[in-house]
């Protein structure tokens, strides 16, 4: 899988496509063709290579196929090949500003999508996500407290400090978990309304014993600071989950 990622990143046109999606996520093929001096077929070919490498994900919204940047594989490569040779990687979660821009036609589209393949069963992924003793190994030392019933509240705690809270909106073990989300201890998020996080868990269509985990963050029109924090944080959470389930170890720096 890492070879596919490095191969995909080697081409400047594919790196340009990733830059375009980083600047504005959830774009159609036509949108992505405009800045590139190549045929529609050529752009489609590059997008297919990026999707096969896991660097982008796609969603069908109405009649349109939308393309989203998937930051998790790059984050995992960072942990594998860069972080152990560099100083501890730090994200300034407490100094974020409302920097996300939202197009006027994005009302019906999920915005932030992250995906990762984990060598584990869906049941193991579900247990890691819902067992506080396991969650604390990859979610910035935080544990989720809830009764795991639909419409029940949940809280995310780091020791004695509550970091986030919400409501369990939908639950279908071990396939799907949907929850509302609101930060309670990050400066700049005080006025944010609850947004929504959806975990989709399923067996990989081609790789036996591998589970594909997709996390969608949406409904954050009035929670842009929260969206920016999760845009940076969720790839780390997913990368940490993969490391924990496959090796039993926690990511350095959590």
UniProtKB/TrEMBL annotation:
Gene Ontology molecular-function annotations: DNA binding; DNA-binding transcription factor activity
Pfam families linked: AHSA1, HTH_20
UniProt cross-references to SUPFAM superfamilies, sorted A to Z: Bet v1-like, Winged helix' DNA-binding domain
HTH arsR-type domain sequence ranges: 1-89
InterPro entries: ArsR-like_HTH (IPR011991), ASHA1/2-like_C (IPR013538), HTH_ArsR_DNA-bd_dom (IPR001845), START-like_dom_sf (IPR023393), WH-like_DNA-bd_sf (IPR036388), WH_DNA-bd_sf (IPR036390)
Entry keyword set: DNA-binding
Source organism, top-level taxon: Bacteria
Family: Belongs to the AHA1 family.
NCBIfam families the record matches: HTH_metalloreg
The protein's name: ArsR family transcriptional regulator
Organism: Paenibacillus lautus (Bacillus lautus)
């Amino acid at each position: 899988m890492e070879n596919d990622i490095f191969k995909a990143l080697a081409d400047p046109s594919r790196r340009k496509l990733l830059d375009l999606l980083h600047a504005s996520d959830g774009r159609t093929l036509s949108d992505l063709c405009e800045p590139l001096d190549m045929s529609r077929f050529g752009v489609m070919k590059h997008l297919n290579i990026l999707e096969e490498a896991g660097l982008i994900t796609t969603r069908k919204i109405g009649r349109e196929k939308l393309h989203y940047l998937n930051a998790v594989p790059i984050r995992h490569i960072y942990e594998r090949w860069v972080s152990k040779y560099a100083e501890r990687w730090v994200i300034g979660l407490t100094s974020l500003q409302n920097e996300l821009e939202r197009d006027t036609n994005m009302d019906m589209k999920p915005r932030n999508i992250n995906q990762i393949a984990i060598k584990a069963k869906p049941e193991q992924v579900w247990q890691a996500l819902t067992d506080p003793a396991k969650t604390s190994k990859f979610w910035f030392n935080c544990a989720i407290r809830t009764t795991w019933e639909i419409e029940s509240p949940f809280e995310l705690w780091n020791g004695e400090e509550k970091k986030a809270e919400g409501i369990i909106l939908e639950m279908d073990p071990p396939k799907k978990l949907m929850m509302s989300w609101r930060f309670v201890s990050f400066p700049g998020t005080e006025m944010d309304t609850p947004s929504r996080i959806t975990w989709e868990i399923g067996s990989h269509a081609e790789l036996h014993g591998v589970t594909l985990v997709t996390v969608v963050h949406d409904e954050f029109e009035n929670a842009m600071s929260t969206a920016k924090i999760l845009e940076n944080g969720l790839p780390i959470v997913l990368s940490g989950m993969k490391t924990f389930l496959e090796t039993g170890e926690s990511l350095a720096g959590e």
